[in-house]
Specification:
Length: 445
């Protein structure tokens, strides 16, 4: 029985990513509620020779989700389909936000073992861009995926897991939005848990000289380095049975950590040499004493990105951490004109077998650099950006897919042993390139 569904796309929608650093004006914007509707949209796109881009939370700090053709926003396909208590697995529609999933799982006494900093992101997008957090025993978020279903360009639905369509599975766990529309995702969960977070001051020398100890000491260890100084804030997060408590303070966090910082960074756009002073001043103000928090896991993993910002985040082999960071520090010292906002966030992740994972077959260190946009004003960053990319490439780095980078197919062929395998799956599933956009053309052509 063929039922014709009338889908209506909106014209005149302006899409912008969360940081308002990238945007596009899709000809038609759809919010489908069923697989049938998505098939209709794909048919319409084929007839009119248009491309289709699927978008979730729109958080990626790059143009990976942008298109001027058809855009499908998956927000209305956001149900929890099944919770398997015995296997501790949950199956959800691709459009569900992790912020909603976290609350649902909690009701069932379950949790995701690891989460990124932001949860206003869709399940299919989180895995599609290779979102990560930290913890050397934990992989990037897509490693928690045990199965998924994919609607391909031809309208066929593929069930994928380690045992069914295994090749497509290793490609689709980090799919870049170019293999089809991810309809459902099944995550491996763990019993719900609380985390005890301890942040304390240290120095770059201490942390880099004792990296092994820190990694052993805390399950989710990361650190923030304050450029133009030796200052570091070390952050340990570990499971605990202690009752929730917090030493956070609204006045400090908001009034000082946000409003004052934004104002000073804005002034520094006229006097760039102020940035070194700002980085030191804020370390002293907000990070120089020990702070502890205990809460349900997802509340500790998530923290508010209050600022609009430009970021870069590359993964290098973990053994290169010290060398690369010291090179970045030296580059800043040797170029007084080059300024870097705080922090440089350093996180660690276990290697995996996902074809386009930045951690493919190697334990990795992610080094995230940032330039804020105070009151929406862009701060010159090209020098810092290129210096950082140069250091990352030199040490065998691979960029985070969601974030802005200047790599092309030539680079990816060198970085990813499985790149040709991914390309052949992509060409098989989407021979006409209906799911491509400008960002993806740089990757594949």
């Amino acid at each position: 029985l063929l039922v014709s569904v009338q889908v209506h796309g909106q014209g005149g929608v302006k899409f912008q990513n969360w940081a308002k650093t990238y945007g596009s004006s899709p000809e038609l914007y759809f919010q489908p509620t069923s697989v049938e509707e998505i098939r209709e949209i794909l048919d319409m796109a084929r007839q009119r020779d248009k491309r289709v881009k699927v978008v979730g939370g729109g958080h990626s700090p790059s143009d990976i989700a942008c298109t001027d053709d058809f855009m499908i926003q998956m927000g209305k396909m956001n149900r929890v389909l099944k919770v398997d208590k015995e296997k501790q697995q949950v199956t959800v529609e691709g459009g569900i936000f992790l912020s909603d999933l976290n609350v649902e799982l909690n009701k069932h006494g379950l949790a995701l073992a690891n989460l990124g900093a932001v949860s206003e992101v869709a399940a299919a997008g989180v895995i599609g861009t290779g979102t990560h957090n930290t913890g050397i025993k934990h992989g990037i978020l897509p490693t928690q995926v045990v199965a998924l279903t994919l609607l391909t360009a031809s309208g066929e639905i593929l069930e994928c897991s380690e045992s069914i369509n295994a090749d497509v599975f290793q490609a689709a766990r980090l799919h870049l939005g170019c293999l089809g529309v991810v309809l459902t995702v099944t995550f491996q969960c763990v019993p719900q848990f609380h985390l005890h977070e301890v942040a304390f001051p240290s120095t770059l020398t201490e942390v880099l000289d004792h990296l092994e100890d820190h990694l052993k000491r805390s399950q989710y260890f990361r650190f923030l380095w304050f450029p133009h100084s030796e200052n570091v804030s070390v952050i340990y997060q570990d499971p605990t049975n202690k009752p929730p408590s917090s030493s956070a303070n609204w006045l400090w966090d908001y009034a000082v950590g946000y409003y004052l910082l934004e104002f000073l960074l804005w002034i520094s756009t006229f006097v760039p040499s102020l940035v070194r002073w700002i980085n030191r001043f804020f370390f002293w103000l907000l990070f120089s004493s020990r702070v502890e928090n205990i809460a349900i896991s997802y509340k500790i993993f998530n923290y508010e990105c209050r600022f609009k910002q430009h970021v870069q985040d590359w993964a290098i082999p973990i053994e290169k951490t010290k060398e690369a960071l010291l090179e970045l520090k030296a580059a800043l010292e040797n170029n007084p004109k080059m300024v870097a906002h705080y922090p440089v966030e350093v996180r660690f992740t276990r290697g995996d077998e996902i074809w386009l994972s930045p951690c493919f077959q190697r334990d990795s260190c992610y080094m995230n650099i940032i330039m804020y946009r105070p009151y929406g004003k862009n701060v010159p960053r090209l020098n810092y950006w290129l210096t950082y990319e140069g250091i990352m490439k030199k040490h065998g780095g691979r960029p985070h897919w969601a974030k802005a980078h200047s790599c092309t197919r030539k680079d990816f062929e060198k970085m990813y042993p499985a790149f040709p395998k991914f390309c052949s799956i992509r060409e098989k599933l989407d021979p006409t390139g209906i799911f491509l956009n400008t960002y993806l053309e740089k990757v594949f052509y």
